[in-house]
Amino acid sequence: MDPSRRKILAGSIGFAALAAGTGTAFITPRARAAAVTEATRGTPTATDPREPFLVQSSDGTMLAGDAQGDPLAPEILFIHGLRQSRLSWQKQVADPVLAGFRLVRFDLRGHGDSDKPAAPDAYSDADRWADDVAAVIAGAKLRQPVLVGWSLGGYVAGAYLRKHGGARVAGINLVDAVTRLSPDLLTPLAATFTRRATSQDLAERTAATAEFLAACFHQPPADVELLRMLVVNGMTPRAVNEGFVATATTDLEPVFRDYAGPVLLTHGAHDRLVRLAMSERIKALHHGTRLSLFEQSGHSPFYEEPARFNHELAAFVTAAIKG
């Protein structure tokens, strides 16, 4: 992250603490000092309840995010998909249905306002994705959140369970999630995008980015919203795709099978990237898991059918906390 941009972000931090027992710092001492001088910038207001934060992962990567809601309320940690950002969850953080929860979202490494390491190996190691989630949980002082993992975010949630276990996770909502990198569980369109997104040709990568974004929806967003999403997608460097497709950790199904907490599977009936079979396999492996099929959605049911999604998520989190 550019030092000047990091300073601006750090100046807006409303809370600062060391992550206990993880070797990760919520913010650096320098950033903490800056936060003291501009602390009011991180104070929630009636018009903007968000509390911006930065956390440092185990390899030094800085991750940007925000939180809102009562710190003592049930917690939801949103993990977005490939080439997206924390802004993907705008229809969740703005919905009164979820106002009674502590809502936390962040930009994955290589995405949005988070650091973007140049080397592909920063994205090929599942443990690095896992440590990013651990840094956010510790830094944001989350006690036992429900993880909501969309697409790549499902893989990231699984990577966290694989390395850190599920003791600090109250439940998991997998949304059109990638849990196993297998050609028979991903569509040919997804395979084509993977190839084109790692092309050395800028024109081909640009076209692939636009086509990938369009493929994420059965009900297209409004033009102005699609343009904003396209800007975010274009911020993701080629190294993210290059690294992720080279990962040695291709199957996280055993991790979800062995997870002791509740799992909710959400899948769009018209998903053009991840086959329904991906979610069906997790349902078969994890006892008591419910699969909720969204008939009017593609790859993004939380965006395409937000009212239903948010009600189901609220009910799932409430039950997970009580259980």
Would you give an account of this structure?
- The protein has 323 residues and is α/β, with parallel strands linked by helices.
- It has a single domain, classed as 3-Layer(aba) Sandwich (Rossmann fold).
- 41% of the residues lie in helices and 14% in strands.
- The protein contains 14 helices and eight strands.
- The protein has an eight-stranded mixed β-sheet with strand order 1-2-4-3-5-6-7-8, sandwiched between helices.
- The chain is globular and about 50 Å long.
- It holds the Pfam family Abhydrolase_1.
- One of its GO terms (molecular function) is hydrolase activity.
Could you give the topology of this structure?
Blueprint (H helix, E strand, L loop, with lengths): L2 H9 L17 H9 L13 E6 L5 E7 L6 E5 L10 H4 L8 E5 L14 H4 L1 H14 L6 E5 L1 H13 L6 E5 L12 H10 L4 H14 L7 H12 L3 H7 L8 H6 L4 E6 L7 H10 L4 E5 L6 H4 L1 H17 L1
Helix pairs in contact: 1-2, 5-6, 7-8, 8-9
Protein name: Alpha/beta hydrolase
GO molecular function, one term: hydrolase activity
Organism: Rhodovastum atsumiense
* CATH topology descriptor: Rossmann fold
Give me the side-by-side strand order of the main sheet.
1-2-4-3-5-6-7-8
Biggest β-sheet strands, sense, barrel: 8 strands, mixed
What general outline do the C-alpha atoms trace? Answer: globular
Give the rounded overall mean pLDDT. Answer: 88
The top-level CATH class is Alpha Beta
Shape-level CATH architecture: 3-Layer(aba) Sandwich
Tally of domains:
1
Q: Helix count?
A: 14
State the order of secondary-structure elements, H for helix, E for strand.
HHEEEHEHHEHEHHHHHEHEHH
Structural class: alpha/beta
Low-confidence runs of at least 5 consecutive residues? 1-43
Helix content: 40-55%
Strand % is 5-15%
The count of strands amounts to 8
Gap from first CA to last CA: 41 Å
State the CATH superfamily name.
Answer: Alpha/Beta hydrolase fold, catalytic domain
Radius of gyration: 18 Å
Keywords: Hydrolase
Domain AB hydrolase-1: 76-306
GO molecular function, one term: hydrolase activity
Pfam families: Abhydrolase_1 (PF00561)
